[in-house]
Structure formats: C-alpha cells, structure tokens
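Troubleshooting entry. Yesterday's outputs looked truncated, so today I'm pasting the complete records for two proteins to confirm everything comes through intact. If either block looks cut off, that's the bug. Protein one:
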Amino acid sequence: MNLPSLRLKTNSDRRIKGGHLWVFSNEVDITQTPLTALESGQEVQIETVAGKVLGLATVSPNNLICARLHSRDAAHPLDKPLLVHRFKIALSLREKLFDKPFYRLVYGESDLLPGLVVDRFADHLVVQISTPGMERVREAIIEALVQVLKPVGILFKNDNAARAAEGLPSLVEAVHGEMPERVALEENGVRFEAPVWQGQKTGWFYDHRMNRARLAPYVAGKRVLDLYSYIGGWGVQAAVFGASEVMCVDSSAPALDMVEHNASLNGVAEKMAVVEGDVMDALRELKTAGEKFDVIIADPPAFIKKRKDIRNGEGAYRRLNEQAMRLLNKDGVLVSASCSMHLAEDNLRDILLAASRHLDRHLVIAERGFQGPDHPLHPAIPETGYIKSYFCRVLPV
C-alpha cells in the first residue's frame, strides 16, 4: 500500500500520541507535505517530523481539522474489512448494554470511525456521513453494514450542516432495501415511531435514553410540561410512567402530530395535550394564564453551535430555565438539559443557580445525567461528550 504522507511539525505529534484523532491544519509541515496537493477525502499516512508513521487518516484539506485518524496500524486502511471489524466491535458493546436492537450503533470518533453515525431501529438503519473520507467509502459502508447486520433497509440521512461545511451535497436516500417513512423503536419499555425521512437528525435521539428513564419516580401522579418536545421522547414516557397530565410544546406541527400518534401507541393519548408555537412565547402565555406544573422538562436544541455563540447561548439557557421555574408549583422539579457541546456542565449548573436566585428560589440538584453508553466518550476528545442534564428540586426560600 502506497499512501501519500502528511507530516507534522516538531512536537505536533503529542496529541496524536496521547490518543487524539484530529490533526489541525496549523500542525502540518506544508513545506514538505502541502495540503493543497491532496484531494478531499483522500487517505494518508500521518508522520512525525522524523518520518515515523503514527497511523492512517482521511483529509479535509480546506478545514481547520484537516485530517482524522481511523487506524493506528498502517496495514489497515479504511476499506470494507476494516469497516466490518469496527462494526462488529461497536455491535458487541451495544449488545451487552441493551436487550433490544434500538441504539446508536456507531458514534464517530468513539468507535474509531470519524465522520460516521449509524442509528439502529431493529432491522432498519439510518446513516449519517459528515466527512469526505467517509463519503469516499460509502459503498463499502453499505456492504459492511449488510454483511454484519443484514438489515431490511438502510437510509442515508445526509442533510446535516457538517456536510455543507465540507462541501458535500445534501441528500436523503434509501441505499439498501426498503425504508418506510416511519420506523418503530422501543425505549425504556415505551413504544415509538420515528419519522426517519423527514424528522430531525436520524429521526430519534437515543442520547437521552438514560435521562428519560430517570423521569419515572419524579412524574408519577404529577402534571408535566415538556418543552421542545419533538415527537414525545420525554413527554410520552412521562405519561407512561404515571404522570396525570402532560403538555408538549413544540414549534413543529408534524412533530406534535407524532406526539399524539406515539401517545396512542402506548394508550396514554387521553393524558396528552399539545401546544404548537415558539416555546418562549408559550411560557409567557402559560404564565399569564396562571398555569402551574409539578415537573417541567427543558431540553432545547443546541443554543450554542460555535464557540462564538457561547455568551448569547448562555443567556438563552438562562432565560429558558428562569421562565420555566416561574411555572413550577412550590415543590416542583425542573429537568434541565443541554446538547450544546460548547456549554460546560458546570456552566449549566451555574446558570440554573443564577436563575433560581433571581427568582428567590432554593434549588438543589437531585441527579445529574449524561449521554447513554451507546454514545461513549472518547477520553482524548472531550467534544464527544455533549449531553448534560440536571434534575433539580425548586423550592420557595
């Protein structure tokens, strides 16, 4: 195998040797190995300044993260055999963790497949490719998934913003077998259908599975408000776990239609109410109407997409959680979550504290939550850990 080289500057190999998988463009010795000579997605050998091979990577010559390693062994390029091996390793973890085939099967860097996500819905798979390197081996990905899992259908849901940043086309297409508009799944004993073609991301968010399971003791017999409900992951489970009433708020009418559908699947439709509209507007209207809730779930989309958004995003989290606290009964519970990678867990804690003190409330944190184990954290890449949640008891002083 004769691959082109990407040589690093002096001392720029430390992060790679320490376990990281990313190479930044300012770490490359472009006099010896110019990035401009490489094609987007091309496979290369990463070398130290002395020429020692550190592993194999695919390149994005025009991006700050210009290369992502997928193998430390130069004898194993990114091809079908490697993909089959990686899929089997990823599958072995998920099968230990879950008794039913509903989970994130591949989680990018944490499964040593940067730029690739695969969500499993029993015999149906939804795949997202976000890097040119994975795009170049898309046919091998399909063949490897078919070999390992023998799925009925595979959907490529390649319409994410990361692809646009890489200059890749936006495309949603069935690439193997039959792929229905909705697929069935089960989470924490609750049944759902997810709109994989038209829904957000892969159609479902497995990352909060464990946090949603924590709802059970908090919601029994309680009135619950689910903000940014999407298709009812939190709200429908709250109803199944014994909530007396659940109100779901979302700006998407199709998502709320799915809330009602998923509630019906579980026989809890009579407990559910849906409100279509902007969440912050809805919170103000509920406050004006004198509505109160025992449990409020605030799990918004990422308010902080880039580092430059941190200040404004933290302000948005503060406003959301403060308005939510205003609607809680005297001994209420706020479940506050964030999927913003750039919001530190401690910062969310401090936001909740500041909001509670502004309202002269006493807040204590009963539990903290993280993403599920099918979204494992790569210890050298903190960006792989993005979900955080707090279960807060909010009391009068």
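Protein two, checking that the full record survives here as well:
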Amino acid sequence: MKVTAIIPTINEENTIGIVIDGLIRAVNGIEIIVVDTNSTDRTREIAEERGAIVIRENRKGYGIAYKTGLDHATGDLIVCMDGDNTYPTEIVKPLIDIIQLDEVDFISCDRMTLRSQHSYTSLHFIGNSVLNFTMHILFKINLNDSQSGMWIFYRKLYKDMKNLSNGMSFSEDIKIDAVRLGRLIEIPVKYGIRIGKPKLKTWHDGFRNLFHLLIKRIQD
C-alpha cells in the first residue's frame, strides 16, 4: 500500500529536513509532498534536497495548502502533519499498522491527553476544549482534540468530503466528514515544542474556527 505524506510549510528551514528524514526512516518508499506557501527562507531547497516533491502555492490558507497537496497525492494512505517538528514522525508506521489492522478509516492524533505546559499551554487547552464542546453540541461528535494537525486516512475517503474550509478550520472539517463517512479513532501522541515563530493566531483563529462550526452546521 502506497503512503503519501503532505506537509504545508512557510519558513520552516530549521525543521523541515528533520521531519522529512524522520518520515523516510519511518516508511519505506513514502511519497512526500511539501506544499510551500511563499517561504522566504530555504524551506523549499531543503525539502527538494531530501527528495520531497515541492509544490509552490501562492494562495494563502491552511486548507488550500492541504487541498493542493491532496490533488497531487498518489498514495492509498495519506499522512498529514506540520513541518515544524512538533508531531512525532516515529509514530507514523505504528499508526499505519493500526489503521489497517483495526479496519478504521481515519486516525487523528490527540495532543491533549499527553500534553505538557511547555508544549501545549493552558490557553490553547481551554480554547481547544471550547471547540471540542461546540463540535459535540452541533454534530454529536466527541473528540479529545478537534484541532489536531496530524491525521492518517484513506485517500478515497477524501473524495466524498464536502464544504471543507480553505483556512485553519480545515482541521475540524475533515474530522467531521471522516466521522460521517467512515470510522475515526484518536491516538494520543506527545506534542513537541515548536522551533521558530508560531503561525497560529490564538484568539483570531480560535474565534474563526468556532464561527466556522456554526456555518458548517447550517451548510450541512
């Protein structure tokens, strides 16, 4: 079974090489697609040097980057994760084994269960909890970490998803549709400390994700 990893990036020269090397060690023959959104550092060059397929995406948006990557992916299984080395690449192979042996369609990595104050602050924990609760109220879906940015799923599942956000809300949207279309489970992972400037705007993106849940409920 072919595996494709999709990594959206912007100015991740300090970590993208570590992430790609980790994925190559974890899965033999893995296809790695880096969707770069206007980096001004050496992110693209480092990714290309390590054999990744690099796609330049000039449009802004977390969801747009993933949609672009998914349009180019050829793997049966898709691994999605950030390029900042906060998610553990060494867990990718065990997750692939689980998704096949347990006959599930989508695995979302849960940062909340094993969180530490150093890697996941109380503010982020509270915000995520509010979004988890809202998702439960609106969609009857119970997740520990609705905003997780690492998932593994079958590419065929994505083809039937609809109304996925072009922005940060893509993360919650894809999980909602995964529950509707198949079987989703969460696996706790140890979330690392980010190197470099964070891309997430805590209050701004938090409120936008909350509002988007309401919009998605209406659209559906």
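Both blocks look complete. Sanity check on protein two: The helical segments are 16-26, 43-49, 62-72, 92-101, 122-139, 155-158, 170-181, 202-219.
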